[in-house]
Specification:
The structure is a single chain. By secondary structure, the protein is of the alpha+beta class. A hairpin with a 4-residue loop joins strand 1 (about 5) and strand 2. It has helices at about 15-20, 25-30, 65-75, 115, 135-145, 145-150, 165-170, 215-225, and strands at about 5, 10-15, 35, 40-45, 55, 90-95, 130-135, 155, 160-165, 170, 185-195, 200-205, 210-215, 240-245, 255, 265. The chain binds zinc ion.
Length: about 270
């Protein structure tokens, strides 16, 4: 979205205008943004390294004319990667980053699934077709294919668990319904970040008073290296974290990633 409304001062901002605000004001206002059309809670996205200028997003964001434009852009305008076209398929997570053995491809890469269509490994044919998928493309599927979130497509995390997508993936807004100390794929928008006194990187979600991801001090550098990013670039990005939750003394839900390898970022 090119513009959003701040409910603190009831003012509409363009992405460029919002980016130009003094930092303290921006940090406050960004937690009070809504879609100018439908009032859905929105978030601010600073200028991307890809060259896309500062803008706004809002998800989930159904039945809004501004949301349609956004989805078409995010998926590259095609639906080749729709996991639900092959309901017999089991998705196996590939933890490697940039591995050569990718079968299913990355919709963002030339020659990926977007260009060549879906292929399968394993013993071939349905209903046992296996689709290997890296975490980045999986996060994109979660963002842009709402039906996948509630589907019964089985997702395998090698050596850990295999569960239907609807039981495995949890948006940050639904964390309170999770079993503690159980592995889930938590995902959603990063609203902002901050460092704790001990060096923990706190990745705050839209439910910032209730849900945050805690990245251990020793994992912060590997996390940023893996995703080729900086802390400043995390604001407004989507994140997927396989991990468990526990409740802090304050009542806040803390998500602990199982490993840096089981995280994905989408900065589109
Ligand atoms: Zn809207």
């Amino acid at each position: 979205m090119d513009s959003a409304r701040c409910t603190v001062n009831n003012t509409d901002y363009t992405g460029v205008g919002f980016a130009a605000l003094p930092e303290a004001e921006r940090a406050d206002y960004r937690r009070h943004l809504v879609c100018v059309m439908c009032g859905t809670k929105a978030y601010f996205r600073k200028e991307a390294s890809s060259g896309q200028g500062p803008c706004f997003g809002a998800r989930p964001h159904a039945n809004c004319v501004l949301a349609t434009v956004e989805s078409a852009r995010g998926m590259g305008g095609n639906n080749e990667e729709n996991a639900l076209h092959n309901p017999g398929t089991r998705i196996v997570l590939d933890e490697a980053q940039g591995a050569a053995e990718i079968v299913n491809g990355d919709p963002g890469e030339p020659g990926g699934a977007g260009a060549g269509g879906r292929r399968f490994t394993g013993d071939g044919g349905r209903p046992n077709a296996v689709s290997r998928k890296r975490l980045g493309p999986l996060l994109k599927t979660l963002i842009y294919e709402p039906a996948f979130r509630t589907s019964t497509v089985y997702v395998e995390i090698p050596g850990r668990d295999t569960r239907p997508a609807r039981d495995l993936f949890v948006n940050f807004s639904d964390v309170s319904q999770c079993q503690p100390h159980t592995l889930y794929g938590f995902w959603g928008v990063i609203y902002d970040t901050g460092y704790g006194n001990d060096g923990t990187l706190w990745v705050n979600t839209g439910e910032w008073e209730d849900v945050s991801v805690a990245i251990d001090p020793t994992d912060v550098a590997p996390f940023l290296t893996r995703h080729k990013t900086t802390v400043a670039n995390l604001d407004g990005a989507h994140i997927l974290v396989f991990g468990t939750t526990f409740k802090a003394g304050s009542g806040k839900q803390i998500i602990k990633p199982s490993s840096v390898q089981l995280t994905a970022l989408n900065e589109d």
